[in-house]
Amino acid sequence: MSAAIDEYLAGKDPDATERLLQFRDLVLACGEVNERVHRTEIAWARTRVFAAAFIYSSRLEIALDLRRRVHHPQLREAFPTTKTVITHRLTITSDDQLDDTLAALLAEAYDTVGPGTRAR
């Protein structure tokens, strides 16, 4: 793990920290990514950011960018960020919510939004 991630996680809720690391493992399992650690969040991109996460109190908040609107039990809100991309914000409060369904949505985001959405 990088020093930047360690710095971001310093002082955060231990359970939420563990969930963020589990989510990060799901992201890294998708394939090659550019991990961008900011003061307030960690984002993952190929050509374009397709996922981001941050810790708010004891919760893990996730943003997934997809080319379609989906429903998910942990969905907090979904809103268009471009004409073709919808950002889905999910709240994760337990380890079992980082499941195969979420992993499939993450893989979809990696495959469909990560490479960029502009016609080439």
TrEMBL record:
Q: DUF5655 domain spans which residues?
A: 5-112
From the Swiss-Prot or TrEMBL record, give the protein name. DUF5655 domain-containing protein
The record, for InterPro entries, names: DUF5655
